[in-house]
Design brief:
With about 230 residues, this protein is an alpha/beta fold. The chain has one domain: TIM Barrel. Helices cover about 50% and strands about 20% of the residues. Helix 2 crosses helix 3, helix 4 runs parallel beside helix 5 and helix 7 packs across helix 8. The longest helix has 20 residues. Bound molecules: 6-hydroxyuridine-5'-phosphate. The site of 6-hydroxyuridine-5'-phosphate has 18 residues, from strand 2 and strand 8.
Length: about 230
């Protein structure tokens, strides 16, 4: 129920930084999310070297590109992401279905990539920009057959609403735990399936211990809310 976001700090060897954390954490977490900072710094072939090692394992390997383009271009991006060994990709819901997400969703099905769409975000402006149209964004996510949606752990009320709207079919992935203020387990108690944690684990002196601590807090909280 824990996904680790790997966003390497500028100035360090990104390849080594990511590889070390994957190796340390692969046995205790549900998956990893790698985004633009790593992809831009390393390029797809070096990212592939890292990701391919883990492709055969039972891990979610998410490419966080937050795609928001016309279908044809997103389709090309999905092909690159699949080549690198990822098994999931993130796109924005707000771009809509026709000519955009329907094209991406079709290519993802062919490639065996899980499609995750963003329906709200953790930053303060998101409550003005995304939440008023949450239902519409979720309907888009459902229409294209998204495997999962991104909903902010920082706003548990949005998670509760999203869970009511998607039912039990679609996974809810909730970033914002730790560095952005949400506490471990709170999003799961509100209806999320996974919590996404970056810096509280990856920037810690001891990422393994930090992850164990978050997992234990998550378990305690969930045990309490599920009674
Ligand atoms: P951190 O725990 O270090 O704040 O990292 C959060 C991760 O979740 C980052 O990789 C970020 O891109 C991602 N994320 C987010 O913080 N808010 C969102 O609304 C959506 C995200 O994907």
């Amino acid at each position: 129920m824990l996904i680790v976001a790997l966003d390497p700090p500028t100035g360090l060897d990104a390849f080594k930084w990511i590889s070390t954390r994957l190796r340390l954490l692969e046995g205790i977490v549900s998956g990893f999310k790698i985004g633009l900072p790593a992809l831009l710094r390393l390029g797809i072939d070096r990212v592939r070297e890292i990701v391919k090692t883990y492709s055969s394992k039972d891990l979610l390997l998410i490419a966080d590109l937050k795609l928001a383009d016309v279908g044809f271009v997103m389709k090309l991006s999905a092909e690159v992401i699949s080549y690198a060994g990822f098994n999931a990709i993130i796109a924005h819901s707000f771009i809509g279905v026709e000519g955009a997400l329907e094209v991406l969703a079709q290519r993802c099905r062919e490639l065996g990539l899980r499609l995750i769409t963003v329906v709200s975000m953790t930053h303060p402006a998101a409550s003005k920009m995304f939440d008023p149209i949450l239902e519409q964004l979720i309907n888009i996510a459902k229409e294209v057959g998204s495997w999962g949606i991104v909903v902010p752990a920082t706003r548990p009320n949005v998670i509760r609403r999203a869970r009511q709207l998607v039912g039990s079919e679609i996974k809810i992935l909730a970033p914002g735990v730790g560095a952005q203020g949400a506490t471990p387990g709170e999003a799961i108690c509100s209806g999320a399936d996974y919590e996404i944690v970056g810096r509280s684990i990856t920037y810690s002196e001891d990422p393994y211990r930090a992850a164990l601590q978050i997992l234990s807090e998550q378990r305690e909280r969930v045990a309490r809310c599920r009674g």
